[in-house]
Predict the structure.
Amino acid sequence: MKALILAGGKGAHLRPLALQTPKPIVPLANIPFLFFQIDRIKRAGITEIILSLSYQPRKIMDIFGDGTQYGVIIRYTHEEEPRGTAGAFKAAENLIDDTTLVLNGDVLTDTDLREVIQYHRGLGPEATIVTARVMNPAGYGLVEADAEGRVLSFTEKPAEDDVTGDTINAGIYVLEPSVLGRIQPTGPQSFEREIFPAMLHEGARVQAFLTRAYWQDIGSPAKYLEAHFGIMSGRVKLPAHPQRACPPNSWEKEQVSIDRFSILDGGCVIKPGVVIENSVLGEDCRVEEGALIRDSVIWSGTRIKPHAQIQRSILGRQCHVGEGARLRSGTVLGDKSIVSDYSIV
Ligand code: GDD
Ligand code: MG
């Protein structure tokens, strides 16, 4: 069996972070996101992976190459014009000859994909959709299923009045090749808005597999931050990831306070009096005297001047936060942003 990862979206809701870094490779705990998915797929015993790209494909291909470094075989499809989720699957038709695992390229989960595949094989539907329970289903695809897990309805991004349940499409499918026959050969088409509703309308068998494992998408800054909290709290495991040579971090242990949840990549310089709690810092960050970083994610090469305070914020690469500046909850800075001394954001 092969897996196909849908990784061609523009990541519009993750702007400004995804402007220079396409969403599939934004760092999660300093690891390009798709590593997490490749790792889960590998653990399910699948070693042939198709990456379906559209937006900034080069940057993604440069990282993953042909996959040998990670013990998998990676092939690519590339749409000049995005063809939507189903159109992207159709664009890979010549690489697909069997039942296929399809994943949205922005969901982080500990779901045992082997179990999902076994469930699909055991029941033999044309499609299995992994579902998850969430507090607020409005921004997702709402899935209704009967007691046996047979899907009754699929409503993408329901209006508030139409939110009848809490079970959503987790963005992971097992699809029979016959689904390809339902997708037009050209032009954009969506699984969620077109193909799944049409299949249900025609009475095709579609099963739901409800996951109870950790599940979180990273499609917006708040969710991206939430996924980091999932990792730092140990609710989701870090993937096996090829080690790279990192310069050592530099700080005097007695003079700084860095809690055990925080993750710092190599080459960071942390000055005395700094407090870092529940946060991730990328490579080569510099945090100066008395600064505070709490519940935040900071990408590589960023410089934080003395006594700055950063809470529940996300900072892109090579930002500069001035002395005494305060970044309050919800701040998101794109790469190379500059916050001047004593500013409040
Ligand atoms: N190749 C390709 N081409 N990939 C695409 C395209 C395209 O035209 N459009 C979207 N994708 C990829 C995105 O990169 C992402 O990984 C995945 O398909 C889903 O697209 P999103 O844009 O992230 O959709 P969403 O988050 O609004 O909703 C989807 O995910 C939810 C779960 O997080 C839907 O599948 C919902 O039903 C689901 O609940
Ligand atoms: Mg998404």
